[in-house]
């Protein structure tokens, strides 16, 4: 097995990662277009960390205009084996209170205006998303949250909506009938693309509000969200730092198959493959495309 490299995608309110040693902002080019920002590469206790602010420094990109393919491709090019997404979200259940961390294990993808795959005409592939997060990485985050004394809940379904507007009351109530736990705008297609790139993925969903459904909490209010994010930023940073300190230095193979997702996924006959697309897939799918 290879050395572990921990990628962190920081969501709303998280545009840097204090505590990185020997850290530098570095530009990484991607054939998939422009990533959200440079990556900040450094180490924590000898573990290589690659940090990318999902919306860019200064919050430039909306959930719809983020180039998720470029972001994941850049992570792969930097050698990331394990990717932690840190994301603000609304709560769809009373017990997930603002300030808590929900360690999501399922997603429902309701986004409609994004590129969702690295593959397509000239190189078709189908990967499994039955278990979209890496159980070992989730365990590592849960252990870190426990060690840091943070309020967290292990497991839960994240509803990914297109946005950028928040949900109507009817939508919020519908998602509650689907037994969803939290709602956000960014973890899809991010999780799908990480799986295509054979990167183990997990989400720390930071609850910032009760979305639109809660009779005692009224409408979603961005000012209130920002306050929770601000008050919780230090906790999120402590959590990430602890994950980094305790993560095994050798990448742990993913029981959900993240490391080998492409093993039997390619459908297009070698002689029918589009060389241009194949060239763009060098980082994401080089492992399976380059073998004879
Ligand atoms: C700041 S509220 C809405 C915004 O926050 C979340 O972003 P992220 O997942 O990157 O933390 C949510 O998905 C929306 O994009
Ligand atoms: N209620 C909500 N809906 C969607 N994305 C969010 N991000 C934070 N709160 C949210």
From TrEMBL:
Enzyme Commission (EC) number: 2.4.2.28
The GO annotation for biological process reads: L-methionine salvage from methylthioadenosine; purine ribonucleoside salvage
Tell me the function of this protein. Answer: Catalyzes the reversible phosphorylation of S-methyl-5'-thioadenosine (MTA) to adenine and 5-methylthioribose-1-phosphate. Involved in the breakdown of MTA, a major by-product of polyamine biosynthesis. Responsible for the first step in the methionine salvage pathway after MTA has been generated from S-adenosylmethionine. Has broad substrate specificity with 6-aminopurine nucleosides as preferred substrates.
Protein residues bound to phosphate: 12, 54-55, 87-88, 186
Residues in the signal sequence: none
Q: Record-annotated residues binding substrate? A: 185, 209-211
Q: What is the reaction catalyzed?
A: S-methyl-5'-thioadenosine + phosphate = 5-(methylsulfanyl)-alpha-D-ribose 1-phosphate + adenine
| Molecular functions per Gene Ontology | S-methyl-5-thioadenosine phosphorylase activity
Q: Which domain of life is it from?
A: Bacteria
Site Important for substrate specificity: list residues.
167, 222
Q: This chain belongs to which protein, by name? A: S-methyl-5'-thioadenosine phosphorylase
Named in its record, the pathway it takes part in is: Amino-acid biosynthesis; L-methionine biosynthesis via salvage pathway; S-methyl-5-thio-alpha-D-ribose 1-phosphate from S-methyl-5'-thioadenosine (phosphorylase route): step 1/1
Q: How does it assemble?
A: Homohexamer. Dimer of a homotrimer.
**What family is this protein classified in?**
Belongs to the PNP/MTAP phosphorylase family. MTAP subfamily.
């Amino acid at each position: 097995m290879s050395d572990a490299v921990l990628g962190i995608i920081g969501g709303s309110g998280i545009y840097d990662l204090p505590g990185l040693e020997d850290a530098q902002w570095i530009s990484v080019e991607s054939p998939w277009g422009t990533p959200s920002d440079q990556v900040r590469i450094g180490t924590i206790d000898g573990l290589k960390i690659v940090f990318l602010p999902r919306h860019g420094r200064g919050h430039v990109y909306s959930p719809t205009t983020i180039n998720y393919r470029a972001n994941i491709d850049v992570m792969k090019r930097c050698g990331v084996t394990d990717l932690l997404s840190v994301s603000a979200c609304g709560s769809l259940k009373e017990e997930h209170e603002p300030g808590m961390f929900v360690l999501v294990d399922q997603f429902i993808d309701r986004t409609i205006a994004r590129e969702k795959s690295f593959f397509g005409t000239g190189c078709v592939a189908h990967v499994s998303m039955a278990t979209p997060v890496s159980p070992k990485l989730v365990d590592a985050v849960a252990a870190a949250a426990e060690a840091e004394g943070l309020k967290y809940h292990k497991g839960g379904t994240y509803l990914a909506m297109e946005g950028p507007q928040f949900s109507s009351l009817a939508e919020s109530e519908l998602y509650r009938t689907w037994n969803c736990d939290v709602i956000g705008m960014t973890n899809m297609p991010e999780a799908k693309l990480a799986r295509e790139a054979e990167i183990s993925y997990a989400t720390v969903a930071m609850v910032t509000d009760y979305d639109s459904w809660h009779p005692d909490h009224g409408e979603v209010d961005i000012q209130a969200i920002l306050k929770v994010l601000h008050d919780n930023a230090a906790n999120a940073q402590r959590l990430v730092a602890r994950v980094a300190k305790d993560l095994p230095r050798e990448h742990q193979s993913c029981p959900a198959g993240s490391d080998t997702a492409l093993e039997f996924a390619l459908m297009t006959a070698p002689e029918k493959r589009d060389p241009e697309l194949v060239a763009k897939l060098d980082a994401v799918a080089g492992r399976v495309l380059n073998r004879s």
